[in-house]
Amino acid sequence: MQHRTARTLSICIGLAFSGAALAQSSPYYIGVNQAFSYNSNLYSTQSNELSSWYSTTSIVGGFDQPVGRQRFYGSGNFGYNYFFNDEARNLDSNSYGVNVGWDWETINRLSGTARLTANQSLVYYDIGGGQPNAQQKNIQNLSQAELTGRYGISPDIALNLGYTYRRVNFSLEQYAYEEYNQNTGSIGLSYGSHGIWTYGAAFRFNRTEYPFYPHPFPSTELGDTGDGKNFDFTIKWVPSGLSTVDVRLSYSDINYEVNEARDFNGFNGSLTWTWRPTGKIFSGLTLIGAPGDSSTFYAFIGEPTRVDTSRFARTIRWYGTYLATGKTKFTWNLSLTKDYLEQTIFSSTQQGSDLVTTGSLGVSYAPTRNSQLSCNVGYLDRSVSDNALRWGMSYPYSTTTFSCSGQLVLQ
What is the chain's mean pLDDT, rounded? Predict the structure, then answer.
């Protein structure tokens, strides 16, 4: 999630100019990025698609600074998006993304991480599946804070603590019902032997608050809260230096006060296999089966993300990179996500599903250490079951994206 992993794919080609290399590498960098992109269906509509080319001009920067046993790092960008189609000019907007972190460690047995992510981006899709698309500018603001701690009870056994706070907001009033705040805490033990096998078991508790979720008619009240109790069992297997397998099996009991259609009680989990057969090839395969919001944020890294309103979702994703030369790299990403939807109207519960297929292919070229050209092309298609379409739970659409960018940094 991944998260869910993002459902649109793009390809970026870039134009960058070479910069003079410094004699010694600095832990800090700052630069500029210019991208020209195309989206064939800006509002993700079923018909009468609006397309446009647009420009994104950004300032980028970052740092990676070890200090003794500590490591401080971060990256960020601030950009302006300008649309060339007059009909899409109202989508002109600012965007930014910030990721900062601290990996800490003491002399004895304590270690952990502290990470903060903040992101603002233009939303190109209809949030709630069947929710009528307002076809207006909608800005998503997403922030996440994550704390982890580890205490080594013995060389092989550790106590692990974790806390995550997540907040998602939208600028458009029509989508306020999807805004939420989520708090998650976990406590567990891990056991690892010789770095080949690592086992973990943890209790995880989360509370999700939807402050503007409407109560059923005729009530005019707003707000819904979901509480989740989970038990996670994890295994990490490193059979060789070329391959790693991560498995999570969870039992979850999730209950909502108002939107009971999203209640979930049962098993869920994920499996990820990464493989590096040579120094030039890296490939990963991920399978996820989890409640919708959990699958969306699986392996979340701070990029714009889709809010998932499904009761349960299954995702399979294959991704990888190929280093053709020391300066040229190819990337690919293919994924299928099936959402299991449920809706209750006047005590009648209807079920349906939709299937989202995404794919992307990219290439990047670094003429110097301080510059990069990149190119990506992507495609997304959503198909829906007859019942989901009939009861307005989702609708079909497709989108093609293309982007060319160039980046120059000083380091």
Answer: 86
